[in-house]
Amino acid sequence: MTTNKKSSSNVNVETIERHQYDVVIVGAGGAGLRAAIAAADGQAKVAVISKSLLGKAHTVMAEGGVAASLGNVDADDSWDTHFYDTMKSGHFINNYEVVELYTKEVADRVLELESWGAVFDRTPVGKIMQRPFGAHSFRRLAHIGDRTGKELIRTLQYQVIHHSVDVFQEVTTTRLLLDKEGRTAGVFGYYREDGRFVIFQAKSVVLATGGFGKAYKVTSNSWESTGDGAAMAFQAGAELMDMEMVQFHPTGMVWPPGVRGLLVTEGVRGEGGLLYNSQHERFMLRYDPVLHELSSRDVVARSIYKENLAGRGTPHGGAWLDISHLPAAVVKSKLPGMYEQFLSLADVDITKEAFEVAPTTHYAMGGIRVEAATGATNIPGLFAAGEVACGLHGANRLGGNSLGDILVFGRRAGMAARAYADDHDQGDLMSGQMEDEAQRVLAPFSRTQGERPYQLMAELQEIMTNYAGMVRSRDTLETGLEQLKTLQERSTRMVISGSRAYNPGWHTIFDVQSMLVLGEAVIRGALAREESRGAHWRTDFPEELPEMGAWNFVHTFQEGTVVVRADPVPAMPDRLARLFESNQSPGILRKQQRAARRGGDS
Amino acid sequence: MSEEMVLSIYRGDANGGQEEEYRVPLETGMVVLDALHYVQAEAAPDLAVRWNCKAAHCGSCSAEVNGRPRLLCKTRLDQYVGQVVHIRPMHAFPIIKDLVTDVSSNYRVAKQIPAFQPRTPAPFTMYQRDVDRVQEFHRCIECFLCQDTCHVLRNHGGTDQYFGPRMMAKVAEWEMHPMDVADRRQFLKDVAGLPMCNVTRCCVDVCPEHIVITDNAIIPLKERVADQYWDPIRALFRRFHRPAEGAVPGAGSDVSSRA
Amino acid sequence: MADMPSSSKPPIARESPWWLAPNVTLVVFSLFVLYSIWEIFGHNVGRYQNYLSPYFSPDVGLWLGVPWIPALLVAWIPLGFRASCYYYRREYYRGFFREPAACGIPDRSRQYRGETRPPLVWNNLHRYFLYLALVVVIFLWKDAVDAFWYQGHLDLRLGSFILLADAILLSLYTFSCHAFRHLVGGGLDCFSCQNRARYRYRGWKAISALNQRHGLYAWASMFMVWGTDLYVRLLIIGAIHDPRLF
To answer: Which fold has domain B104-258?
Structure first.
């Protein structure tokens, strides 16, 4: 129990456990596992490092489905319609190359899962069933009840264990190791079980560490979503982009307090759930006369917020969501997880009564800036995929696009990392770098007094929620930044008691430090974007401004601070720009034209 | 207005330990995991408990509350008002620290299960009635509570003799998949230890996803193994008659022609 | 709660008296077995007027002209069917073998071998007892119909309805059997792949629904057989009178 408690002063890096791999994947959610399968598809030696147990990553929380234009229920669906929907919902600051690759490939990735044993719900003719979702032109989300994420991760997990991939469970990585030329050389971390250090030397590294939703107080994210990968890469020199774009999912649980923020799948609205205010008015009819409850997430979340501002909120500050008009058997078969969740945690039977929902932090559209086709970052040998990367979702993510994202770009990043490892030698580790890191990681044990990590975590969440949440203005952001800076300074003095063995307080220290860095990027990005666009809502700039739509805000980490610059959004070539000439998606247009032709014939 | 609850939490590691008492104010709708987080923040920052989603989707926070294997995130505290709440790690697995146990044996045996082997590449034509049965097993969150409560694992040396109920559900998921062509019957009998199960059904009681593991996975698998190894008439039939695909009662599609 | 030893881990479900269920099973099953032995080995006649005790049905002793302990010729079928039944296995592994007595209670023995060697491995022959039990069920229905006909006319007495209830409960128990569920459709991987499989799917669905209450039917039918036989036995020895109902 007392091992190494006071050993921080002199760490001998030679004694640290070392592993050599061609490709190391940090993160064992959907993106990481898919990357591992792609990377292991040859002779490469591949390892996956997971902060928790295999199959527990935040991907299990994804409920609604994976968006792919299979056209199984709506034959008019096509990749270009999916492209149109994604760009439009992203308010055109997405990287069109990423979106094009995604919408063209995601159907194949879904079918690939099926041939690996995933069992999606079926249509009456025996194909994969697809359900409607917010702001998708067609019924598009392949799903298995309301537990699609679990299906994905489980399928990938069993593929991985049947491939030659080494999985290191419950290992936290704290630093990306670079060689003298600034190329990726490996990662430094420790086993959570006993706190012992471990170094992975690797020719290439794929980051698939997910988002940082834990930076907010009310969140649908699990404890793991603390942005470690993004912070680690950022501090090693990688660029972040679109960090101001944090998605607030309109429907999180509100009551009781212990479950506040827990996700209520968009599938509830997809299956026909309706939103009411306290006056029993379907307010979404006013805010979006076309799509109603199935408007995009930013719109629905803001509408709930506005209803509360106008005094028409529910007792705990949300809206009523009601699915009880459907037969109980349908609710139980299509939304079994929701039924169970409300019954056991909130004593509410959703087949009989309406329930309260309110916006909850859900997803980071921003992240590490990557090359579209490979997920390569600006650090040679470092790749990123999934929520940690950026480009697909723009200013607002469409439901179902995250599960597709991890499949398409997990695979691409895995293949690219393998190709990179084939062409490059292992970079030399610098022992000074590792010594510094070992000392930094152990420092909290050597302090006798200082800041408590749980306290700092709570304060950080308070700041981000109050000043950089769903509603922002210059005033709130500047106040937030000021307080965050103070917190950053205090965070260098965190202290922990106990041993290195499975010590959650100690682990929290690194979570807090990661999120403090990313939180600053969020606020600085939000300050720079002087407009409202998608998930980013500034009360002092309530309009979407076309001139701002031409820019992505890119962050670099220079001498301890976050520096922002504006980079132009890549312009779509004509063949894609043409899709947006009319105000309808290509699939809907084709459908209308066909109907018109048929009308003309008769 | 808030009541105070007394939690008696096991603190210790492989070298031993004991329960220690902590006091936690009861809030509306509080679950045991909330209470443990309160203890971590206020009294014992190094209290080890494994958790991820806190929504009963990931199956990380398995432990034993007042002697019963449960998910900590789904166990309401208010049901124990007036009692001391004893929280202990899962018994069937080696302890790492406090409430955290070493569940790696599950992953080791999972690796040995012959993987899904589709008859044709996707897309498959499969109907809902064909997949309803296997979708039940897809609900599994791998919390390993069934493994914990199974007496073969709990009292007779872990997964060495029997892979456990979770793994039987996994095998059933693939074995009953309409498109799967692999035959796992010999594996079940000789490697996975299916005959060690004596269908006492404790796994069904603790499953937070309400999967009827014994009746829908284990017993049907036992019957399939019996088809192959304990049915002399069927064996004779197999010897003299090569049936058309799927025509043998009780044999999965073309299973018998390969046997 | 306070007296729980801190070094050993507590058993599961300490809140309820875990020992109750296995001991009830132990006592009731033992009594049933003792009664069955007394009935089978102690009697040569199982018929009273138009009633035939389920222990003696079908009346093989009469067909073969075996005058001594004729029940032995058929009673092994339902008893073997029950002994190898998945539900009874659960009950006697808990109640008699104490492996485990209840969930979380440590097994009595460290020598546990499951169903890997004789005699317990023979439980895998359950399906053969099922085939035979299905034949017996046909005769039970014949007995039930006979119980309503006495000397060529309809005769509604209490015993008629007892034998009817006996046939119904034994049918429910037999048709809800796990092995039957497997035989009818459970062994198929694909219910849509051939025409015949669709009928088998329907059968499998129906039996699956019945199967959920297999345990209930197991207890109910056991008491029913017991009661029916006792009723017939008491009529034979003249201890009771069979009341006419209509």
So the answer is: Fumarate Reductase Iron-sulfur Protein; Chain B, domain 2 (1.10.1060)
